[in-house]
Amino acid sequence: MDMSRPLVASEGNADALDVYAAFGLLAALAKDPQYPATEIADYQRVIDRKGQHVVSHDMLDLGMSLWLAHWGTASNSSAQQLGTRCIELFDDLLYTGSLEGYFLRRLAFRDFGAMLGLRCYLADRSKYESQIHQLIERWEHWVVSQLEDLQAINRVIFAAALIPGGNLKFLC
Prior knowledge:
Blueprint: H1 15-29, H2 37-50, H3 59-72, H4 77-95, H5 108-121, H6 126-140, H7 151-162
Helix pairs in contact: 1-2, 3-4, 3-5, 5-6, 5-7
């Protein structure tokens, strides 16, 4: 694969955070802690340049931002701020009823991503468990009936949301 130049001219909303988190995990596992230091510093500059990570009301964006934030919450105030903003947006969706009206127009894996993020980020998720279980029950019967090309991602993210191993912080 040719990695000498970007393959696309744009970057996703959380791309820099994804790479920063991945290098942070590599640093935690590396025998030489200086191994990804340059890369981590590079992506910290990208994150700083872009400013505060913007989170939308999209369920997958909320969930993946929470998942990213959970890796750095103990040691990083910007991760804590990101997590707080995500929870506030998720509360808006729950308490304004925005999740109710368009259930069958949504994609299952997007909701499962939100469930995964909540379960990884929150130490005490009792406030949200009933909503998470309602979403699981609603989607269990629809997962296989969604578009065939989405079935694989639906099933993988569904399984990850049911048993979120990403909340094991032994790597950090």
